[in-house]
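In full, the data:

***
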Amino acid sequence: KPDEGISTDPTQIEHRKKIFGSNAIAEKKLDSFLKLCLDAVQDFVLIMLIILGIISIAVETTVGVEEGEKCGACWLEGAAILAAVLIVVLVTATIDYQKQFAFVRLTKSLHETNTKLVIRDGHQVSVTDEDIVVGDILSVNSHNQASIPADCIVLGPPISGGLKMDESSLTGESVLITKNPGDIVLSGTTAVQGSAKMVIIAVGINSVAGKIKARVYDSTDHDGEGMDGDDDSPLFIKLEKIAKHIGIAGSGAALLSLAVNCIKGFVFLNEHPQDVIIEYIVVAITVLAVAVPEGLPLAVTLALAFSSNKMMKEQNLVKHLQACEIMGCATTICTDKTGTLTANKMTARSVYTNETDFSCNDPGVSLGNYVKGHADRPNQVTLDLLSTLIAINTMDETTLEMDHHTGKIARSTGNPTEVALLAFACTLGDNYQDIRESTRGRSDKGNLSEFLVEGKQIGFSSARKMMSWAVPKLEGGYRIYCKGASEVLVARCNRQLTRSDGDVEVNDASRNDILGIGEAYARRGMRTLALAYRDLSDGIDFDAKSGSVLNADGSQALEVETELTFLALVGIEDPLRAEVPGAIEKCYEAGIDVRLVTGDSPNTAVSIAYQAGVLKDFHFAGEGEYRNSLVHEKIAANLKPNVLMEGKVFRRRVYRIDDDGNKEFDQTAFDSIWPHLRVLARSSPDDKLTLAHGLNQSTLFTDKAACWKLKEEDNISVFPDRQVVAMTGDGTNDAPALKRADIGFAMGIAGTQIAKDAADIILIDDNFASIVTAAKWGRNVYASIQKFLQFQLTVNIAAVVTALVGSFAYAKSPLAAIQLLWVNLIMDALASLALASEPPTDKLLKRDPVNRSKSIITSRMWGNMLGQASYQIVVIMVLLFSGPEIFGFEPGHEVEKNTGENSLHYTFIFNAFVWMQLFNEINSRSLEGDCNVFRGIQRNPLFCGILVISSVLQVIMVEFGGRAMRVTDNGLSAEYWGYSIALGVVSLPMQWMINLLYAIVHRYYGIWRERRRVKASRRTSTRNIDP
């Protein structure tokens, strides 16, 4: 029976699932661990290391072994290089693999919030989409949970106004389809008008949407229609460029080493090529191994993974690791309104009734309590009529439970606007359920249920922009209660209810007063609904059409919905999240533009944008420039040109029609709009895609004249590089825009599954402030990698110079390849984690985003690297050439040549080199030349712990590493340990000297540049001009 539904007995539910299938689709196939490993090994540096490792093993185990000599551990260095690659690949793949499962867990938790209303055992219950089974009776209306979860058949009786479905998601046709009893409604479609009950006939893989989804998840993604963009992130592009430059420089250094040694050996020392050429090749390979930053890929992966895990705790689920740093480069955020800037909790805050405006501005006081406590409180007849109209003329699917202790909503279902009205009625002191159940023609409970057919529901339709419900009166006839758009209902009212005189005629002045109040509500960002009623006689024809009144779409209005008595105008707002204005202010301070993209009307969009801080006072025209008589109102009409644009105007401006009649995007026209644009109202998902594409592809920054004009005339600064665009979205139709943007944010609560699949980051709490958190962590990732590069490249510069000098002097590097691999991989990986663990500060949001084209290595970093590397090179050179004389040990090259044993000399050099790196790791915490490099180190126990671990590991390697680490078997004495650590400590005061020198050079270089500019200007101004 349609009124009873199926049984709630779990065994029967499971039986239906077993016979007809579950309404759950097999989850999207996850990438295998092997595939993730193959993806990770595509890195340029890793490819170089693989080639290097294979060559090293091949040379050492074949031509590198003399006749009669055993290889022993000659393959160790090459194997260690390949092991390093394996570690990097496994760590990267493992992190990505874990991320996939984290996303699956979130998806499962979010599925639990996708609920529908079904009838079981005669009661309306809420169940998740996955728990719906064949035979369930589904309650659907266009206000609430309108997405159809399974294939259905519409049940009778027919409802006035009809049920209209949007099937564009399946057919591509935007024309609404009317559904009558007996018609099939397909899953994946949306109810946009009316309401109905339906019986489920197919679920899961057996439904239309289920089959499509299963095919989509088994196939690869398809590209957009001409809206393609860059796939690589700005950071990875820069790192790839650095890696290639290092590879080229390293190859050049290796070839130089080989050439110098060959010339020296063959020309000056008259050595036989067959005796020494392999040794020279091995030395060249060592130089190349020293030059390549083996730890860089792992360092980047660890930094991104650490940050993404931290972001997860702050309501950001990062699906792709590189999304962390992309957000740090963001220059523009295009955000939705509902649920992102606002709390998505519709609340009645104003009501105009009895010719009095009651506007409650205290968020701690409910509107009902405010009205009852007001000096001009409406009479009881009006209050009772308000509660009755709201209780009767709302959908059954809209329910509400109030917390009687706090007076706030404890739980609700259904349309948010109707929930707000029901809450208003409850705070007036009435129970809407009692009113419904005691009203003949509206109650479906007890003895009154048999008279339910006497009530007449006229469902909401976009054509009428209103909804009505007529119930019989005890004295005969009917009373019809109406609610709808204020401009529609007020025009149909010929009487209004007053406090003292009852219902009186409405004149034009009164009607204009009501509409003026409605406009004032709209300017405050509220949605307005008018409430009205009319008493009807027995025998009235509910289908009769009016001969003079038309609906919003131009069709004839129903006669019963005319000649109404105005009761009230209610202003309902979706309150702004308290943290949003501060978050948007941080965005502007960080050089990130915020643009509001919403389907709301212009005035509502402007009100929310102004409250949130997206719009500032300077976006409005000055005195004498206003185009509206309300010169001090923050309304759409008073904005400067192009600051706000409606979707239809935007589309008309940025698209042109070519000779063949095809629509073509006009980037030039778009570039004339976007610097001014802050609010896009009445927009569609396609507008989001266009906005993301146009911003991403804009090269306006290259037009210096246009940028100068914008700065001089409108005080608009154009970011001096291409835009990095972040886009929020929650609907299925938002998916293309989320994919097209540099970084897509999907809503974790309100977002559809397809939107989440298309996004890079999921906002678990749907909060704009979480986007700012993502930007801060993204910038921290960028800064962390800069710190690591500063540390890593200092190591490489010093090591390459040392290896080259050693190869020139002794045809052998004092730092073995395995020792440099230890420094570059293990210690640098720990260093990357230590530097990545530096928590972000608000200081990161005080500077502009990083340019796409700007080098990741700044001039300050070059100063730090060259300064520290110079100190390290001087120390190593002194130890290499004068160490035996100063400390009294044998030169390392002689010991290793004569005895084949590892020398104390080279072990000491290796240890001193490492300790200089460990103390320089502390220096690398600062990118700006801070004098106190220890500032805040106590707040980062992970950094301190890693520093201790690295030190302990170095002790172990030197004392017990032996042949494997190319160190002396007996390790070092306390004396040499003291010298090594002391040389490392000197790196700290050396950084102060570098900072001072950099400041002096930077200052005088700036003065010199300014003088050159002035001289050039003088020469230009005094140049003779031929007549």
Q: What stands out?
A: Residues 218-230, 1020-1027 have pLDDT under 50 and may be disordered. The radius of gyration is 37 Å.
